[in-house]
Write a structure and sequence with these properties.
Helix content: 25-40%
Strand content: 25-35%
Number of helices: 13
CATH class: Alpha Beta
Oligomer: single chain
Shape: globular
Structural class: alpha+beta
CATH topology: Purple Acid Phosphatase, chain A, domain 2
Mean pLDDT: 93
Length: 477
């Protein structure tokens, strides 16, 4: 287990010419955190929790919106590009790991794209790091306890006995804590997060593969609920910089049922609905998630001056028709094990009505020229670009995945591209078009990658950094 990590920066909000930040620091017990200095303002740490002989601390502070600001901690100065008022550079990453033996990989290979991203930041600093899901791959934790092993095998779900459940909870808390420390403590990742404020949303592997799309009996079993509770606690700690019993102010649902967030910045709204906390095989968001999402959209509609709307949908909001594939899977039991992977997608036949409602809301916001919408997503371990036809200009969907997950085969990308040719238009009169990346053959690109969004003046562009092919030409969005 990594001895100490941090500081890791998290964006909270912006107001009165300043950005409000949190910085997370994890130290061995008995080692007091130093004071943080933010341009002459001394900030003391708040203890968040203690586990496994280590304590997590948080500093809450603000910086002026300037390119040449920063903070100091423990004798080290950390420059921060905090100018959100003019030109912007935003990095988007997702799928930071793999299902098996992730921590056994050589770091130079595992984090090759993180190292490239860090070099790019050194040359031209980013203001914001967006993390779109699967920041860790917690699947290995399914082997940490006999009760969870039984649950994961998918056989008959047994009720956990009164003594096993508390023991399972503590084992999982230890496991998630150690996993986050080991992943976020890797130099290429922690180096970026010390200098670039982050906003993140979780996806299934931050809990376990297919969470929410699994059978209700598994989700509702004591083992499943214990797994979700431990994953949520550590998601809040390591991806929001928050205690398990608190929510940052950017979450509209104050009950904590849905963990979606909205941050308003100069000329920009960044928001992420929570597509996992209430997910079931027949739905993507529950009542709290939809109410939270509608609250975010209403705040955008009522905001003065409008601004670009950058929506993080952890699973792509635009994609190929999947209903035929789902129907074919039932022809042979050997394929039914992949059903939860398809149920994860907005395009699943189980979510068709909900997908339409989601796109209707986005199209209504995008139709106002003052609030153009761009969607960014990960999850599929491929890169692609699509549009939803919404006059006066198309709504763009940008998919970048994954930053560390190995790329699937080119045959898989070709097969998914063939599905995309059939098209899918859940909104009458608003066809979806998947055209792929500029300069790349096919609809989907099977290379590890990350996405760079740039605002220059009033214009926005997107480009992908591909592991083998390099930088794509820019796309105007």
């Amino acid at each position: 287990m990594t001895e100490a990590i941090g500081p890791l920066l998290y964006l909270r909000n912006a107001s009165e010419g300043r950005i409000n930040l949190a910085a997370l620091l994890v130290l061995p017990d008995g080692k007091e955190p130093p004071q943080l200095d933010a341009e002459g303002n001394s900030v003391a740490a708040t203890r968040l929790l203690t586990r496994r002989g280590k304590t997590a601390w948080r500093f809450d502070f603000s910086l002026p919106m300037r390119r040449d600001t920063g903070y100091s901690l423990g004798g080290t100065h950390y420059p921060v590009n905090a100018d959100f008022t003019g030109d912007l550079r935003i990095a988007f990453v997702s799928c930071n790991g793999q299902e098996k033996n992730d921590r056994k990989r050589p770091l130079e290979e595992r984090n090759a794209m993180w190292q490239r991203l860090q070099s790019e930041h050194d040359a031209a600093p980013f203001q914001l790091l967006l993390q779109g899901g699967d920041q860790i791959y917690a699947d290995e934790l399914l082997n940490c306890h006999p009760a969870l092993k039984r649950w994961a095998r998918g056989g008959r779900v047994r009720q956990a006995d009164a003594t096993a459940e508390p023991d399972l909870a503590e084992t999982l808390r230890d496991g998630f804590f150690e996993l986050y420390l080991d992943i976020l403590g890797q130099p290429a990742i922690s180096g970026m997060m010390a200098h670039v404020p982050s906003l993140a949303m979780w996806d299934d592997h931050d809990i376990c593969d297919g969470w929410g799309s699994l059978r209700p009996a598994k989700l509702d079993a004591p083992e499943g609920r214990t797994l979700f509770a431990a994953a949520r606690e550590h998601f809040l700690l390591f991806q929001y910089g928050a205690r398990p019993d608190e929510l940052p102010g950017f979450c509209p649902d104050r009950s904590g049922t849905s963990l979606g967030w909205h941050v308003a910045l100069p000329g920009l709204h960044v928001l992420a609905p929570d597509l996992r906390s209430e997910r079931r095989p027949n739905r993507v968001m529950g009542p709290a998630g939809w109410q939270s999402f509608d609250t975010m959209l209403e705040r955008i509609r009522s905001a003065e001056g409008g601004g670009r709307v950058l929506l993080l949908s952890s699973v792509p909001a635009l994609g190929p028709r999947l209903s035929w594939v789902e129907a074919l899977m039932h022809l042979t039991p050997r394929l039914e094990k992949y059903e939860d992977d398809l149920r994860d997608q907005w395009q699943s036949r189980a979510h068709r009505k909900e997908w339409r409602a989601f796109l209707e809301r986005l199209a209504a916001i995008h139709a106002n020229p003052a609030t153009p919408v761009t969607c960014v997503s990960g999850e599929i371990h491929l890169a692609t670009h699509g549009t939803l036809d919404v006059p006066p200009k198309p709504l763009h969907q940008l998919v970048a995945s994954g930053i560390a997950h190995p790329a699937p085969s080119k045959a898989y990308a070709i097969g998914l591209g063939l599905l995309a040719r059939f098209g899918s238009s859940p909104l009458p009169g608003h066809p979806i078009r998947l055209q792929g990346l500029p300069g790349q053959p096919g609809t989907y690109t099977a290379e590890r990658n990350y996405l760079v969004l740039e605002r220059r003046g009033a214009g926005w562009t997107a480009s992908w950094e591909l592991e083998h092919s390099g930088r794509t030409p820019e796309v105007e969005i």
